[in-house]
Structures are given as C-alpha cells and as structure tokens.
Specification:
This protein has one helix and two strands, in the order αββ. By secondary structure, it is of the alpha+beta class. It has a domain at 41-94. The protein has a two-stranded antiparallel ribbon with strand order 1-2. A hairpin with a 5-residue loop joins β1 and β2. The radius of gyration is 23 Å and the shape is flat. It starts with 40 loop residues before the first helix and ends in a 9-residue tail after the last strand.
C-alpha cells in the first residue's frame, strides 16, 4: 500500500516513526505556548516579576531586550566541590533613533 500524495489541500500525514506533537501550537492568550498544563501561580508571579525587571532594564539603559537565555553553569561551593547553578544571559540592542518630522 502506498501513502497518498502530498500536495494541494490534502492534510499532511505524519512520517512513520514520528509522533505528532501538539505542544508547539500557539496558545490563544500567548502565555505558556509550549505547555498544555496549567502552571502554578508561583510561576505566573515569577514571570510577572521578571517581565518587570526587564522593563526596568530597558528604561534605565535606553535599550530593548533582544534575547534572554537560561543556562546551567558549574561553580564551586564553599568546600571547593562542584555545584550547578542557574545563570541568565540577557542580550540587549540599542533602540532605534526616532527622527521627528522636519518642515
């Protein structure tokens, strides 16, 4: 048996051995795009706080946040042993210069 031809308005068929993923679909409210389950209220509160900090950073530096990455880095504890910590890398870019209308 052969697979139906792809093209036109025919629905896409999943490739053999690949599972369909629904977690990449956009959520209508724009939050928790990749998560289907409801986040605890503490996560929502942390997102609000981080958003506020990013806005303060933009205002105080006259830049726009371009990207935020969360990384795990290895550090040493008080005894000199390795410990994994979270590190945040924030990329900013200059805001475009707003030019006024000239007459």
């Amino acid at each position: 048996m052969t697979a139906p031809k792809q093209g036109g308005n025919a629905p896409l068929q999943a490739r053999p051995g690949h599972h369909e993923r629904n977690d990449d679909m956009a959520n209508p409210n724009g939050m928790n795009i990749r998560n289907k389950h409801k986040e605890p209220p503490e996560v929502d509160e942390a997102e609000r706080k981080i958003g506020g900090l990013l806005e303060e950073l933009e205002d105080s530096t006259d830049t726009e946040v371009k990207d935020v990455d969360l990384e795990e880095v290895v550090d040493t504890d008080a005894n000199g042993g390795p410990v994994v910590k979270k590190s945040v890398d924030i990329q900013v870019e200059n805001r475009p210069v707003k030019k006024g209308w000239t007459r």
